[in-house]
Design brief:
The chain is α+β, with helices and mostly antiparallel strands and 182 residues long. The protein contains five helices and four strands. Strand 1 and strand 2 form a beta hairpin. It starts with 26 loop residues before the first helix and ends with a strand.
């Protein structure tokens, strides 16, 4: 058996992100019987309890900032590791729609696209984070805002401000995001 290479992951202080896709591990080796999927409620349990503790310890603004930045990092890594490399924005969107649906993250649609101004309205139906939750008159998909921002930065090389304006939790049946250049 080959020696196992140790990778610093979570127990050291840092000022810069060090995440690498390989930190997700080998799911086929590690979960030969259960496979790579789990129930959405287990994902939400981790996310919502983490967010609850962060709000209690650091406040809503800090929790939102962390979730946005984590989503942004995830979006960039998702783009680099799961999407086809293309200069065509339409091909990028089509590939993204297919991969998000295949991974059961959500069903992405482009409602409006101003390619000259790089302004978009996107919707995600059956969103992993919120679809089916009780109405609480809040938009809660801060991680998704960052995720979309990271995807678009990786695709275009440009910064975007992404804001959720409708959410399952605010009474809508899709999450709707405005996207504008930052």
């Amino acid at each position: 058996m080959a020696p196992v290479e140790e990778v610093a992951m979570f127990k050291e202080e840092r000022r810069e992100g060090v995440f690498q896709w390989t930190m997700l591990g080998n799911l086929h080796e590690g979960r030969p019987n259960l496979g790579p999927t789990t129930d959405v409620s287990v994902y939400r349990l981790m996310q919502f309890t983490l967010r609850d503790v962060m709000i209690k310890e650091f406040g809503v603004e800090a929790a939102d900032r962390v979730f946005y930045e984590a989503g942004r990092s995830a979006g960039a890594h998702f783009h680099a590791n799961l999407l086809a490399k293309t200069d065509s924005f339409n091909a990028f969107v089509a590939d993204l729609q297919e991969v998000l649906k295949e991974l059961r993250v959500g069903i992405l649609r482009v409602e409006t696209a101003d390619m000259e101004g790089l302004k978009f309205i996107l919707t995600v139906a059956e969103d992993l984070d919120c679809s089916g939750l009780p109405v609480c008159n809040e938009t809660i998909c801060t991680y998704d805002e960052g995720f979309i921002s990271g995807l678009l930065l990786a695709q275009t090389g440009k910064e975007f401000k992404v804001k959720e304006v409708d959410c399952w939790c605010s009474g809508d049946r899709v999450c709707r995001f405005t996207v504008v250049p930052a």
